[in-house]
TrEMBL record:
Protein name: Nickel pincer cofactor biosynthesis protein LarB
Residue stretches making up the PurE domain: 119-251
Species assigned in the record: Terriglobus aquaticus
Gene3D superfamilies: 3.40.50.1970
Stored SMART domains: AIRC
Chain's gene name: larB
Domain of life according to the entry: Bacteria
């Protein structure tokens, strides 16, 4: 349930195409639905502008499938992160229209009309090995209605690759940079752009990378002051924050606010 859905519900009551009792039934599960194992926050998009997302890791395929189906029945756009192929199969058995993005490990379902996108986010990754995290970030931001431009395999070992796309990166309101190994790329990007950079350390690298810890520490110690850091492999968290930054930075937001 999002603000547009609530307004449409009230408009249906005003037009007489929906009875007050029927509207009440639809609203009965707000602000959350208790399934016995989880409490689905159907009200979150009304409070924050972005819907609740299912974190599939640690849940059984059956639990994720049930949550996904319940959120689908509520009319929401649904996204599940960190989903295995087995979990995706269970979800699609109950919700056949759901789509599995295997590289990003996301399951998505769009049920509402996506309004004009707000904000522009650039997603960069240092190497092809960082693609799962970068695609998680890119697809999540797109799901939330943000325009995304991807620039992959632009790591510092071949800096000319980054410089070749610098002008396009400069068009974004926020930049997400995913990198493993020593995690140097966000600092370089931060020195080239005048917008916030969200650094995502990935668990890519040899032994002394300590599964992303070396990249995390390097990014936390960045000398570029516009760099902020999320946790290792957290493409979803980076996309969530980048979406909010990009929306706020979009110059059309002033007109949008005035229209309310």
């Amino acid at each position: 349930m999002n603000p547009a859905a609530v307004l449409e519900l009230l408009a249906d009551v005003q037009r007489g195409s929906l009875s007050p009792e029927q509207a009440s039934d639809r609203l009965a599960k707000l602000p959350f639905e208790d399934t016995g194992e989880a409490r689905i926050d159907h009200h979150r998009a009304l409070r924050t502008g972005l819907p609740e997302v299912i974190y599939a890791a640690g849940k059984t395929p059956e639990q994720v499938a049930d949550l996904f189906a319940r959120m689908t029945a509520a009319g929401s756009d649904v996204l599940a992160s960190r989903a295995t192929p087995e979990t995706a199969a269970a979800v699609q058995a109950l919700t056949p229209q759901a789509h599995y993005h295997q590289t990003a490990r996301l399951i998505s379902l769009r049920q509402t009309d996506l309004p004009a996108t707000w904000g522009h986010v650039a997603v960069l990754c240092a190497g092809t090995s960082d693609l799962p995290v970068a695609e998680e970030a890119a697809l999540t931001a797109e799901f939330f209605g943000t325009r995304v431009t991807r620039f992959f395999d632009v790591g510092v070992a071949g800096l000319h690759r980054l410089l070749a796309v610098r002008d396009q990166v400069l068009e974004a309101h926020c930049v997400i940079v995913c990198a493993g190994m020593e995690g140097a790329l966000p600092s370089v990007v931060g020195g080239l752009v005048a917008v916030p950079v969200i650094a995502v350390p990935t668990s890519v690298g040899y032994g002394a990378s300590f599964a992303g810890t070396a990249a995390l520490l390097g990014m936390l110690n960045s000398c570029s002051p516009n760099v902020s850091v999320v946790n290792i492999d957290n493409g979803f968290g980076a996309a969530y924050s980048a979406t909010l930054i990009a929306r706020a930075s979009d110059p059309r937001n002033g007109a949008k606010a005035a229209a309310r």
